[in-house]
Design brief:
By secondary structure, the protein is mainly alpha-helical. About 40% of the residues lie in helices and about 10% in strands. The protein has two helices and two strands; from the N terminus they run βααβ.
């Protein structure tokens, strides 16, 4: 009898260009000293959908407007 293994799908990631660039630089800077730790954030940043900062969801936009969230 085959076991049905259910894999969970990761939630989508949508982030503004400003945050994506800043987090990418941080993860790349850490890659030299902590390669095992930086792999996770780098792979998540790779699968993120990057949008303009003005249409980014959430309350942490660089222009200070919360976007209705």
């Amino acid at each position: 009898m085959k076991k049905h293994i259910q894999t969970r799908r990761k939630p989508s990631i949508v982030m503004g260009d400003f945050d994506h660039q800043r987090l990418n630089k941080l993860a790349l800077a850490a890659a030299d000293r902590f390669p095992d730790i930086s792999d996770g954030p780098l792979s998540e940043l790779e699968r993120a959908r990057v949008v303009s900062d003005t249409s980014a969801p959430g309350k942490c936009r660089p222009d200070g407007i919360d976007g209705g969230v």
